[in-house]
Amino acid sequence: MAHTQPSVTAVDPVWDRMTQEAEDAISEEPLLGGQIHSALLHHPSIENALAYRIAMKLTNSEMSEQLLREICDEAYRADPDLAASARADIVATYDRDPACHRFIQPLLYFKGFQAVQAYRVAHWLWREGRQDLAYFFQMRCSEVYGIDIHPAARIGQGIMIDHAHSIVIGETAVVGNNVSMLHSVTLGGTGKEEEDRHPKIGDGVLIGAGAKVLGNIRIGHCSRIAAGSVVLHDVDSCKTVAGVPAKVVGEAGCDQPSLTMDHLFGG
Q1: The predicted structure's pLDDT at residue 6
Q2: Which residues form the Serine acetyltransferase N-terminal domain (predicted)?
Q3: Which of 7, 53, 168, 263 has minimal CB crowding within 10 Å?
């Protein structure tokens, strides 16, 4: 007798863990039962939960929650990579952020995670040619979260943005996989050129709080940018840069700076 392969939605360890954590959280704090049921347990999948959460946070008098939810549902149905990236972002946040103790925390409470997921929907809209709607998502993310990510920017999976206040990522920026950054990071342009004008961040890069990376420059894989630095030139892979303007001050110190989250460097 032939055996059919289980569907992706039937085998979802991230979502299974989240629903179990949600049940446990309600047992520990019954007063949060309404919120947790609405955000998690009322939904059959992580895609539905993400669509609901984004819609609830971004709704305003100009765009209803129901309409936003329909837009998000359409995006998640059309592009399975959106939810796959969200799963990777949840695991990344749990692994790297010492303040994250459960998988449900990013979806319920962490604005960095929520803003990145809203950006992912906006980026899908942008690729579909629906730029004005994508700009609406960008505007609401900036107003609600204090995070401004242009919908045309390209961002990989396994992204962790800790605290996340005042993040700015420009239109032609590219962020690789497994990147970690802290609050007040800017991936910005220089001058008024209209072409490719924003940084390209490699995989596994760690960007410290307040760092500014400006212009069409490349930051090599597994490099480390110290807090408060202003980076104006390319950075080779596996290097640590610091200062204003930033200069190489040593090796990265480990294979994956974005995973260890180690911001210390020797003299």
Answers
A1: 45
A2: 14-118
A3: 7
Q: What is the pTM of this model?
A: 0.91
Structural domains of the chain, ranges and CATH numbers in brackets:
13-147 (1.10.3130.10), 153-266 (2.160.10.10)
For residue 144, which amino acid is it?
V
